């Protein structure tokens, strides 16, 4: 990425942003300010007046030529994009002069040091990390095309025309909705604003699509793969993001009250919910899989409506990612690999944001590819590289009386009749029936994984045994591994680490107690993962497989070596990693031979990875996959 941090929102900046936010999707203010020459004329009259004004040399603002090297790079990207992405059905590419002088307003960077920036919707939207020397903090800026008063006026007329034209149309899928909208918007722009400059037409189409189809003012943020959480705390308050590298950052995006109320109401509708005075709290999944919590402004939220979005990664983290970030060591990941292949059950525990679900998802790469998997969640977070996978999500009641609800317990009970080899439950919270059914599944031979809120092995066991879960000791003894995740600091940087990996040991002579054996512990002074005891679980696997100690050591060492090789070579893409794991499981000797010969390359792994058809059957967009990798 190329990037910069952000400043306090001035009243002027806040107002400007609220205009950008208030597109169709978010609710456009009904007050319309036509250009000075408009004076109540029709749209076509206004266009002619505006064009003549431009011809006479009357410009709304002074032309500014941006000379900073990074600005020149951005403008070159815009020119290059339009040169290679011509739309014969819409408008010609804007001139280089238009791009250089009237496309972006880079004065937002004047008070900061630009650290890096990233295109999130080229050539219209980029995000930047900047540093504010005065406040000594990083900020997050969103850069989108600048619109003058005339362009805003045309945009607002297009909004009203499109809203009326599309009001009663129904769409089967989001893709169909987008395609139809873009066709209608392009045609309407050409019919009503054909004399507007090409550059203005492209900007107009961008904002219409952004606000009707996408996520309005926060759409660039939603497109940034480095952002994990997005939160708006109320009216005229800057939106905050949780960035994978820079942690909590203030953005230059804010909503006025009208825009925020409209935006949150529309977002709830997109999630299939209604945000009303009688139902002021909404917890749901957005169409892209992200989790959203929305609160209606008023009695229970005195600063206005608010929302928090936990983004769903289009491409899941791989085991190599977790080793690369030092969440786990290669040795630990090899341990999990062998345990999962040999049907050992485990629980990932930790606090909010500690990486429990990401870790569970990543280690699921080790599940044999043909195994039948059933996953059960409240909101969609699990994403696996497997075809033989049933993905189940709970459903809220359809009526006020509670009819139509499909609970996690309902889905879990149904899953046991589907004969899964591996059962993944998004999280065990406070439902005793869910907890008992989950552990009953383990006791009847199913391999099961879940996540749990607890900060230590002892806390996991204590909370499981006591109300409201009340899991009997005998059932807990069927669990094999407890993995404790934590979010901690490394200097001033917040990181995720596996704090402890422990095994539950069954004792034939003592069925009324839980015995714990810690195998790996994190040394916080060196930020390393240490093996603190020999694994009884690995010894049990070796005995079942007929391996001696040397063979067990070789099995673990070869897996750790492969994972470390992928880390060292920067091979962490979805396709290459899943290919490497599957090739190892099918022909370990060949993979080791290629490692010895230096022939295990990314190109080799990609050639043998999932095909386009495989990815499509798993619901993965190949274009998104390639862009991410």
TrEMBL record:
Domain Bacterial type II secretion system protein E stretches: 267-486
Domain PilB3-like C-terminal: 526-598
Gene3D superfamilies xref list: 3.30.450.380, P-loop containing nucleotide triphosphate hydrolases
GO molecular function, one term: ATP hydrolysis activity
Entries under Pfam families matching the protein: PilB3_C, PilB3_N, T2SSE
PilB3-like N-terminal domain segment(s): 102-146
Chain residue ranges for the region called Disordered: 1-43
InterPro entries to which the protein is assigned, alphabetical: P-loop_NTPase, PilB3-like_C, PilB3-like_N, T2SS/T4SS_dom, T4SS_GSP_E_ATPase
Biased composition (Low complexity): 18-27
Family membership noted in the UniProt record: Belongs to the GSP E family.
PANTHER family the UniProt entry points to: TWITCHING MOTILITY PROTEIN PILT, TYPE IV PILUS RETRACTATION ATPASE PILT
Protein name: Type II/IV secretion system ATPase subunit
Protein source organism: Haloarcula rubra
Upper classification of the organism: Archaea, Methanobacteriati, Methanobacteriota, Stenosarchaea group, Halobacteria
